[in-house]
Specification:
72 residues; alpha+beta; two-stranded antiparallel ribbon; 2 strands
Length: 72
């Protein structure tokens, strides 16, 4: 595992490098982008955030904004 690996003039948050001698099966490439959005910026309080499901979280303006920035 490695953090902040430079890839094509950008940085990956987290990478896993598998040694060639340990590749026993299919290898899948997965991209995970970590984002931190404060509750204040999201406009909610902790108690309300704990009760939200993924579909409601995906509609919060700040989260939508961050996801759109990632797509570009």
């Amino acid at each position: 595992m490695d953090s902040e690996t430079e890839i094509n003039l950008r940085y990956a948050d987290l990478t896993t490098i598998i040694r060639p001698d340990k590749r026993y099966g299919k290898i899948f490439y997965v991209l995970i982008k970590f984002k931190f959005i404060s509750l204040k910026n999201a406009g909610i309080i902790a108690e309300a955030a704990r009760k939200l499901f993924k579909d409601k979280l995906a509609r919060i303006h700040e989260i939508v904004k961050q996801m759109e920035e990632f797509d570009n």
